[in-house]
Specification:
heterodimer; A: 98 residues; B: alpha+beta; 8 strands
């Protein structure tokens, strides 16, 4: 029996950890994906096969996950733009319109 | 005052080659335009804090034919985004090329439409091919991160 491996994925919210984790788990029948946030209480059932599969944009494209990543980027970006524009409005209100 | 509808960001893939983002900003178009065209303002919002990217350079020469350059550090490696402004129509329209990828550039068109003191923002990204759209690093699923993951997996 091959030695088991555990792959940890960490990163900022919305970057695709869960998507990549699920894609990895599909590489082998003996692999599984454990989302520690959602399933802290889950019992580890066995060890995963060392992976020979490649994960690339195509895997993600199949799930349209990249467009979700794109959406999250723009939501975060335009939320930040909102704050900057609110600052500009405040400054104008304080200093007058020139 | 915040209403979720007003702040809603819509993202749509309208064809194999084009992604469109729309959002209404509660401010006149000239202020929104200013935030897109002034480097000190632009750098405050273009890279969301949660992405952990360190923006080390932000140069915007906003005029037709002018260049822009954004440089990031991420885990010690550098990334650059750069291109040329094709159209600059104050408070109304901004078009630039994205020259960092190989091959023909993707073109970004931003329109600012003001009504009742609010600005309807539309960002169109037009890619030279379907593959270019789907492998765009700025879409959030960074290809280089996936490449690193491939290397990691190969070494296991």
């Amino acid at each position: 029996m091959p030695e088991g491996r555990v792959v940890f994925l960490t990163g900022a919210p919305g970057v695709g950890k869960s998507t990549i984790g699920r894609a990895l788990a599909e590489c082998s029948e003996r692999s599984f994906f454990l989302d520690l946030d959602a399933f802290r209480a889950n019992v580890v059932r066995g060890l995963a096969q060392p992976s020979t599969c490649r994960v690339g944009p195509r895997v993600l494209a199949g799930e349209a996950a990249w467009i979700e990543g794109y959406r999250r980027l723009w939501v975060a970006r335009l939320d930040a733009l909102d704050l900057v524009v609110e600052d500009l409005k405040r400054m104008e209100a304080t200093h007058g319109n020139d | 005052m915040e209403t979720t509808n007003a702040r809603q960001t819509n993202v749509e893939r309208i064809s194999d080659l084009e992604l469109v983002v729309t959002r209404t900003i509660n401010a006149p178009a000239r202020l929104v335009f200013e935030a897109w065209t002034t480097a000190e303002l632009f750098r405050r919002w273009w890279v969301p804090r949660s992405y952990g990217l360190n923006l080390v350079a932000c140069e915007l020469d906003v005029r037709v034919g002018g260049l822009y350059r954004l440089a990031f550090l991420h885990d010690g490696s550098a990334m650059e985004f750069f291109g040329t402004y094709l159209e600059v129509d104050p408070s109304s329209r901004l078009v630039w090329t994205n020259d960092e990828a190989d091959g023909d550039p993707a073109v970004t068109t931003v329109t600012f439409e003001e009504s009742d003191g609010k600005t309807r923002l539309t960002v169109r990204n037009l890619y030279p091919s379907k593959e270019a759209l789907e492998s765009d690093g700025s879409t959030g699923a960074l290809p280089e991160v996936l490449d690193q993951l491939d290397e990691l997996l190969a070494s296991l």
